[in-house]
Design brief:
By secondary structure, the protein is mostly beta strands. The protein is built from no helices and 14 strands. The protein is globular, with a radius of gyration of 13 Å.
Length: about 130
């Protein structure tokens, strides 16, 4: 548990339950199967960085710019969820946003059930709209 920003590399956060100001998961599988809760942003930058993780931003965004970065994850954000890497949020258990869900790359939100947003859901990448939208 920490109040500072956490940068996860080389599986530093893999499989752990952690709370912090914000998280940046930089390398492949660095936050795989983790439970991360942040006051601010959670960024899953590396390939498969947050594979099968549980991600919750209590006041900001969850960002998934890496390829397969949030595949199979459970994602909750007080503000926006960004799925903008190749297959970044494919097969997510669920995506819930207090504002918008933005899926902008190929297959980013493929087989996600459910996607829940208080605002709008944007699926602008190819095949990004194969989801149940509640």
């Amino acid at each position: 548990t920490s109040v500072e920003s956490v940068r996860c590399q080389k599986k530093k956060c893999k499989g752990k339950t952690r709370t912090s100001k914000d998280f940046v998961c930089l390398s492949k599988t660095s936050c795989e199967r983790s439970t991360l809760t942040a006051r601010n942003n959670i960024t899953c930058q590396g390939v498969q960085a947050c594979l099968d993780a549980t991600l919750e931003s209590t006041k900001a965004d969850v960002l998934c710019p890496g390829g397969n970065s949030c595949k199979g994850a459970t994602i909750t954000a007080a503000n926006n969820v960004y799925c903008n890497g190749f297959k970044s949020c494919t097969e997510a258990v669920s995506i819930t946003a207090g504002n918008d869900i933005i899926a902008t790359d190929w297959l980013t939100a493929y087989f996600v059930d459910p996607m829940i947003a208080a605002g709008d859901i944007y699926c602008t990448g190819g095949s990004g709209s194969f989801a149940t939208i509640a």
